[in-house]
Write a structure and sequence with these properties.
Blueprint: H1 2-31, H2 59-81, E1 85-87, E2 90-93, E3 96-99, E4 105-107, H3 109-118, H4 122-148
Antiparallel strand pairs: 1-4, 2-3
Helix pairs in contact: 1-2, 2-4, 3-4
């Protein structure tokens, strides 16, 4: 759900940026009989302020995307720290039933990584730790940084 929310906000930003740029060019052509073709008009994102403060974006996009990213980080923390699945045991013979009160085995990200490491399956343990444990947070924090940082920090090729 979190990824869907972020995707929707990204599409809103792209549509707003493309639509505003087209409108500005159209208005410039309509009001200026001889447009200067040497210098194209700056796009709506050609500014010195970050996207979170950019006036061309509506307030709900400017603040909604960082909020969605923070909610996504919280959801990842919740899913990675809680038990994902549990194996239990229940024995039934006739009318007699016995259920083990606690699960026999709990599946969680931390348990999986540590058990793979103890079993000396180092490559798989590292892959799980990096791509399931670290990468989602790194990606989301980088998204927040890019959204909140001024464009002067980035090269023009970006």
């Amino acid at each position: 759900i979190g990824h869907a929310v972020i995707a929707v906000f990204a599409v809103c930003v792209a549509v707003a940026a493309m639509g505003l740029g087209w409108t500005e060019r159209r208005v410039a052509r309509a009001t200026d009989p001889e447009p200067d073709e040497a210098a194209p008009p700056p796009g709506p994102m050609a500014s010195d302020c970050s996207l979170v403060r950019h006036p061309a974006l509506p307030w709900y996009v400017r603040y909604g995307l960082p909020l969605a990213v923070c909610v996504n980080i919280i959801l990842f923390l919740s899913s990675n720290t809680n038990v994902g699945a549990s194996v239990g045991l229940q024995v039934q013979v006739g009318h007699w039933a016995y259920k083990v009160p606690q699960g026999l085995f709990d599946f969680a990200l931390g348990n999986t990584v540590s058990q793979m490491w103890q079993a000396r399956v180092y490559p798989l343990s590292l892959l799980i730790a990096v791509f399931s444990g670290m990468w989602p947070y790194v990606k989301l924090v980088l998204m927040l940084f890019i959204w909140c940082a001024p464009p002067a920090l980035f090269p023009d090729a970006w």
